[in-house]
């Protein structure tokens, strides 16, 4: 990251089963990136541990953090559990000189874009409803009612794709990975972001 530059903030959203977590991992494989670990009030799944993708907190602790203004965004999903992005990750990105990656839902993405208009929002789209349902069912974690809710929520989220800067259709993982990484790398090469460095180089020419 250029000296004294604000960290780039990348928002990655997409319906459950779209493959966004896998694509986020490909972004984090690039040097100079930092994952924002979300807070949630939902209980951890059997395969999850706190501090990797989520920090699991009580309803009371979540409310305390919200009232204290510790969240950059927060949203309630399916009318049940709360999710949020702690502001401290933006501070951590600044101090470490890294770019911040947020994997959050559409509600949270719109909140972040309002507060950080320069944030780059990427929406991950499944190739079809049938393929999305197949992916959700293959996990074997959800009841029929839950699958129906997830598919309806996916439809609602897809309707909001125009609020994003980029869309990546995840019908081929290798291609989608290259596209997401390409968005991040291109953003790092922006003229405004690098103008101070270019001016310094010009000075070396006596300009």
Question: What order do the helices and strands come in, and which of them pair?
Answer:
Blueprint: E1 9-13, H1 20-28, E2 33-35, E3 38-40, E4 54-56, H2 59-67, E5 71-77, E6 81-86, H3 88-96, E7 99-103, H4 106-115, E8 120-125, H5 129-139, H6 144-158, E9 166-169, H7 173-188, H8 191-204
Parallel strand pairs: 1-7, 1-8, 2-7, 3-4, 8-9
Antiparallel strand pairs: 3-6, 5-6
Can you give a write-up of this model?
The protein has 207 residues and is α/β, with parallel strands linked by helices. It has a domain at 9-36 and 97-204: Rossmann fold, CATH 3.40.50.300. The chain is built from 8 helices and 9 strands. The protein has helices at residues 20-28, 59-67, 88-96, 106-115, 129-139, 144-158, 173-188, 191-204; strands at residues 9-13, 33-35, 38-40, 54-56, 71-77, 81-86, 99-103, 120-125, 166-169. The strands form 2 sheets. It has a 5-stranded parallel β-sheet, with helices on both faces. A 4-stranded mixed β-sheet has the order 4-3-6-5. A hairpin with a 3-residue loop joins strand 5 and strand 6. Helix 1 (20-28) packs across helix 7. It is globular. The two termini are 24 Å apart. The mean pLDDT is 91.
